[in-house]
Amino acid sequence: DAGITQSPRHKVTETGTPVTLRCHQTENHRYMYWYRQDPGHGLRLIHYSYGVKDTDKGEVSDGYSVSRSKTEDFLLTLESATSSQTSVYFCAITQDYRPDTQYFGPGTRLTVL
Amino acid sequence: AQTVTQSQPEMSVQEAETVTLSCTYDTSENNYYLFWYKQPPSRQMILVIRQEAYKQQNATENRFSVNFQKAAKSFSLKISDSQLGDTAMYFCAFISNYGGATNKLIFGTGTLLAVQP
User: Fold this and answer.
1) Over the stretch A15-35, which tens digit does the pLDDT of each residue have?
2) Is residue B101's pLDDT more than 70?
3) How far is the CA of B86 from the CAs of A72, B15, B17, B79, B89, in angstroms?
4) Closest residue, chain A, to B91 (C-alpha)
5) In angstroms, rounded to a whole number, what is the distance separating the alpha carbons of residues A7 and B38?
């Protein structure tokens, strides 16, 4: 258990509405990541953070923004949700003494109608 | 660019038997890490096993072991004494050793394993 929680766990929303997903960790890890999981694609990196207010883009960042104002929280925002953003979203962390290994949260299933 | 390929979309095994899941990858780097993650129906992504590329010894974790063939760029997962709780999607993943935690974890598309009673 890497001490990661995600909220909400499930969300249904409509096209064009803003959505924010939250990842919360309890162990002060420096690095946090957001992935999306789609059939046939495995997991793909959206954004990651290497410290408070320090973030960078991943492979599929278009349409997403992130913020990290506190070490423990990493927020993923869909400014105007589209049906193509229907997916399962995972947050992950690395432990500082082992930066190569990522541990995942329980996931959020997002449906955009 | 690095890629990870899992060529078996689905597999089935009888309880108590042994099964091997295949994974190949492509990279020009010499130092990297490889992983197998398990995703049961609960959707949680669980780290099963980790292999450091500079170590020749194959990693093992209880009933799970790997066959790491660096020259062939092959990284298969063997599950011994299969149990019903092993039913899950299994993902192979790669990460470079250069750049630390800013590196991207690259996943294969997964193998769905069903353990039959």
Assistant:
1) 999 999 999 999 889 999 999
2) no
3) 32, 9, 12, 9, 9
4) A42
5) 22
